[in-house]
Design goal:
Elements (H helix, E strand, L loop, with lengths): L2 H15 L3 E5 L24 H4 L2 H6 L1 H15 L6 H11 L5 E4 L5 H5 L4 E3 L2 E8 L5 E2 L1 H5 L11 E5 L8 H13 L2 E5 L18 E6 L10 E4 L2 H11 L1
Helix pairs in contact: 1-9, 5-9
């Protein structure tokens, strides 16, 4: 048995013995669905400057750049769907193996795959609102660069931009769930974005890290290097 297989076996044992498991996912969970990553060498941020585009100031100062970036992301999403790893996580919740899912991803693939108790800490790119009056808007209006039907303001996706706070209710409830956990599994995130990178360490739980790139071995009790989908497929066979 290879080292990775041995570690997946160890994770299966941890899951069987845990009373309250929380999963935290990041971009690495979505890339295998065809969603471009931002932080990898081939990621979107090599072509776009996120600190310029993905900010509330850009909505006011350069809406063309903001809209072009998010229109591309919304349209890319239409060609993608949840992969087997998303479905496995949803099945684990239905079976009571996983209690809660916390995600940095804005694609809503976890909900589409069937997960129910999901906290989208960075919002959703599938719903839209006016930046000024907060009135809801639909995707067609956003993609068509239409003004808000209520105040004439500029439309945007319901995602958290740089410089904006996370949704308080979701964040507080996610923290409450994490504090209950005796097992936390972090999947596919670089853990570079504050405050989400603090969440796994708010509990006394056993902590597991699954990612293609290993950066936090010393911070976790178990680390598994590999793709989210591949590891989850192997894990489900053992449960």
């Amino acid at each position: 048995m290879g080292e990775t297989s041995h570690k997946i076996n160890e994770l299966a044992s941890l899951l069987k013995n845990a009373h309250y498991t929380v999963i935290l996912t990041g971009a690495g969970m979505s890339t295998e669905s065809g969603i471009p990553d931002f932080r990898s060498r081939e990621g979107l941020w090599q072509k776009f400057d996120p600190m310029r585009v993905a900010r509330p100031e850009t909505i006011r100062e350069d809406y063309d750049a903001f809209h072009g970036f998010y229109k591309m992301r919304v349209e890319t999403l239409k060609e993608c769907k949840p992969h087997e790893g998303h479905l496995i996580v949803a099945r684990m919740e239905k079976e009571g193996i996983v209690k809660t899912l916390v995600t940095q991803n804005v694609d809503d693939f976890h909900r589409i795959a069937g997960s129910e108790k999901v906290y989208n800490l960075h919002g959703s790119i599938r719903t839209f609102r006016c930046h000024d009056c907060l009135s809801p808007a639909d995707e067609t209006a956003f993609l068509g660069k239409k003004p808000c039907g209520f105040c004439g303001g500029r439309l945007r996706p319901n995602v958290v931009l740089f410089g904006e706070g996370l949704p308080h209710n979701d964040l507080n409830e996610a923290i409450s769930e994490i504090e209950k956990a005796d097992l936390i599994i972090v999947i596919g995130t670089s853990l570079r974005v504050y405050p989400v990178n603090q969440l796994p360490f708010m509990a006394k739980a056993i902590k597991v890290y699954i990612n293609r790139e290993m950066e936090f071995q010393s911070s976790f009790d178990l680390t598994i290097q590999g793709s989210a989908k591949d590891v989850l497929v192997e894990l489900e066979k053992l449960l």
